Amino acid sequence: MQVGRDKVFPALDLIDYEPGVHSAMEWIFGQVFVCTDTETARRVCYDERIQKRCVTLDGDVFDPSGTLSGGAALQTEPVLSALDKLMQAQVSDFVISCYVCGFKVCTC
Questions:
Q1: Which residues neighbour 47 within 8 Å (Cβ) at sequence distance 6 or greater?
Q2: What is the CA radius of gyration of the chain?
Q3: 95's torsion region: left (phi>0), alpha (psi -120 to 50) or beta?
Q4: Are residue 25 and residue 64 in the same domain, yes or no?
Q5: Which of 46-60, 73-87, 92-106 is predicted most confidently?
Q6: Mean pLDDT value across the chain
Q7: Same-domain pairing of 39 and 85
Q8: pLDDT at 48
Q9: Are residues 18 and 60 in the same domain?
Q10: pTM above 0.70, yes or no
């Protein structure tokens, strides 16, 4: 069964870099595939004909040596959500402190 061209990409093809560092980039990323999902990564990595390291879009790493490291199951809040909360808190603090000192911040 074939996995499909739209699910597996050579990592080196997804990276922009200066021509002068091509050898280093090829050494680091030349044997790595980026896969759209966990099942595809598992199938590609452990296929007898391929046996190459695969990384999912969620950050899970599959290695043909048998190791698996995860990136998708973090127990932390998404970065953008945390940033939004921080920005809201900072705006609230600014409005309160300005209200206290008498400086009018908004036109509501």
A1: none
A2: 23
A3: alpha
A4: yes
A5: 46-60
A6: 76
A7: no
A8: 92
A9: yes
A10: no
Q: How far apart are CA 20 and CA 66, in angstroms?
A: 34
Q: Which residue segment(s) compose the domain that 107 sits in? A: 76-108
Here the CATH number for the domain that contains residue 54 is: 3.30.70.1620
Domain-embedded: residue 2: no
96 within domain boundaries: yes
User: What does the pLDDT average to over 40-50?
Assistant: 93
Same domain, 34 and 85: no
Task: Report the length, in residues, of the chain.
Answer: 108
The burial of 84, by beta-carbon neighbours within 10 Å (0-12 exposed, 13-18 middle, 19 or more buried), is given as exposed
Smallest CA-to-CA distance from 79 within 64, 59, 108, 52 is with 59
Order the strands of the 61-62 sheet from edge to edge: 8-10, 32-35, 53-56, 61-62, 68-69
Closest by CA position to 13, among listed 33, 35, 28: 33
